[in-house]
Amino acid sequence: MRRPATLHSNHKTVCGYNLFPSKLKFESKKLINSFICTGREVVLQWISSHYGIHGNEQADKLAKEVLTLHPPCFPMPLQNTQRLLRDKFRQKRISTFTDLTVGKFWFHLLDGQKCAQFSALPRVEGVACFRVITGHDYLQAHLFKIGLVERFTALPSL
């Protein structure tokens, strides 16, 4: 009868779940699977970092140093990358628009409930309402220019 293969590791490595395992973890899992497929027993044994096994404390110390110097670089699925970039660009665009509206009489339209009301409208209606509120009512200006309305008022209704 063969002795079981015993793997000593710290708790995070044994119990940890990582979406993008390192090459060492991948190779270790492959080796464990090959042991199991040949009918060999595999025992995972947890060792705390302060247990006193030669080299374990040093390995933990070096691993912590490496993580603080160089954060791990894991590949990211394309969907996650696209979502993160879209969110970043959206935040940047919103902050740019907010900065540009400071001092305008309609700056409050980009905040809170007013913004939610306009975003609930179909695009055509939302744009038309925004133009009327901000004094860019092109239809009213055109009608005034050709004499169909008596007076053109571009006063904000809010």
Automatic annotation (TrEMBL):
What InterPro entries does its record include? RNaseH-like_sf, RNaseH_domain, RNaseH_sf
Gene3D superfamilies, alphabetized = Ribonuclease H-like superfamily/Ribonuclease H
Q: Name one GO molecular function term.
A: nucleic acid binding
Please give the Pfam families that the UniProt record associates with this protein: RNase_H
Q: Where is the RNase H type-1 domain?
A: 28-66
Protein name per the record: Uncharacterized protein LOC103524116
Organism in which the protein naturally occurs: Trichonephila clavipes (Golden silk orbweaver)
Q: What is the lineage of its organism?
A: Eukaryota, Metazoa, Ecdysozoa, Arthropoda, Chelicerata
